[in-house]
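Summary: Need help interpreting a holo structure output

Steps to reproduce:
1. Submit the protein chain below together with the SMILES for nicotinamide-adenine-dinucleotide.
2. Request a joint structure prediction with the ligand placed.
3. Inspect the C-alpha cell block that comes back.

Expected: a single structure record containing both the chain and the bound molecule.
Actual: see attached output.

Input attached:
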Amino acid sequence: VEEKIILEAGVPVSRVRIEAGILDSERAPSLLLPERPGRAGVAFVTHAGAVERAATLARAVAATGLRTAVHVIEDREAGKTIASAEAAYLWLNDIGVTRGDTIVGVGGGTVTDLAGFVAATYLRGLEVVLVPTTLLGAVDAAIGGKTGVNVGGKNIVGAFRHPAVVLVDPAVLEGLPKPLLVEGAAEAVKAGLIGDPVLVALYEREGLSAPIAQVVSRAVDVKARIVSGDFTEQGERMHLNYGHTVGHAVETAAGIPHGHAVAVGMVVAGAISESHAGFAERARQDRLIESLGLPIRITGVRPGDVMRLVDLDKKRDDRGIRMVLLEAIGRPVVAPVERATVEAALTVVGID
Ligand SMILES: NC(=O)c1ccc[n+]([C@@H]2O[C@H](COP(=O)([O-])OP(=O)(O)OC[C@H]3O[C@@H](n4cnc5c(N)ncnc54)[C@H](O)[C@@H]3O)[C@@H](O)[C@H]2O)c1
Ligand SMILES: [Zn+2]
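--- attached output ---
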C-alpha cells in the first residue's frame, strides 16, 4: 500500500492509502478502520453511483464483528444540503450511533463533504473515514479535512475535520465512465498548475488515458504538501482555490458539475493571471483544459448573477477579491483583484 501522511502542526492526522484492487481485497476493513478500542458500530454514507461499493464494504466490516448500516443520500449537489445533513443525523439517532463509532463516506466529493460535515458535527464530532469513488474525490475532495454543505452558494456552511483514513482504489477509478474522468481531470490539472508541472505534462502527453494511479499519487502529493503546511487556509492552502472564485459562482449559477465549473473558472483566472501576474502560459493551459473535453466557455448565465455569487465567496477584503493567480505553471500567488477586473474577464468564457 502506498501511504501518504497529512500533518497538522507537524503531527500526523490523516493517512491516504492507495492500492489498486484494495476495495475487493480482504484487507479492506483493516486498512479502512484505524485500530482503536471503543468502536462498536460503523455508519456508511453513500450515493447512487457507489451504493454497491458501500454495501460490499459494510458486509466486510460487519464480518469483523462490528455493527454496520448504510444510508444513501441524494445524488450530486442535492446530497450536500442542510436537509441532507439533518436526514443523516436523524438516521444516526435511529441506529443508535455513539461517540466511539465511525462514519464512513463512500462516493464522490459530495458524499465525502457531507459525511465529513455530519461527522464533524454529530455528537460534537465522530471519527470519519473516506472512500472516494470518483477521480475528483480521490485527487481532491476527500483529502485535507474541509467539509461542508451548500446554502445559497457553494460550501457556505462547513467545518474542518480530517478523515483518519482515506482509502483509494485506482482500479475502481480506472473503470469510471468517461464523463467522470473528465470532471476529475479538472481538479487534477489544477493540482498540476499550482504545484506539479510534471502532472501537467503527463496530461498533455496522455490526455484522459494518463495512468490513474500516477495522477492520484501526484495530485495527492500536491494537496498533502499544501495542507500539511497550512490547515486552515491562511496562506498556501488558498492556492487550492485556483479557478474556484469564478468556478463556484458559475457552478451555482449554471447548475453544472463542479469539475466543469472549475475548468471555466481556471480559464478566467488564467486570463487575469496573464494581465496581472505575467502568466505567459495561458494559451497552453486553455489548450490542455479543452483537449480533455472540459468546457472553456459557458452559455446561459448572466454576469450579474455570477458576480453576486462571487460576492458571497468568503475570500474578500477591502482591497478587492483575493484570487489565486499563476505567475507560471507551478508558481501560484494570491493577489487582490478588483471586482471590475473579474467582471470584465468573464467575457473570455462567453459570459457577457
Ligand atoms: N472538500 C474539499 O476539499 C473539496 C475539494 C474539491 C471538490 N469538493 C466538492 O466535491 C464535489 C464534487 O465531487 P464529484 O465530482 O465527485 O461529484 P459527485 O459527488 O456529485 O459524484 C458525481 C457522480 O458520480 C457518481 N459516482 C460516484 N462514484 C461512482 C463510481 N465509482 N462509478 C460510477 N459513478 C459514480 C455519483 O453517484 C454522482 O452521480 C463538489 O461538491 C465540490 O464542492 C470538495
Ligand atoms: Zn474544487
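--- end attachment ---

Reviewer comment: The chain is about 45% helix and 20% strand. The pocket of zinc ion (ligand 2) is lined by residues 140, 187, 244, 258, 262 (CB under 6 Å).
Status: needs-info
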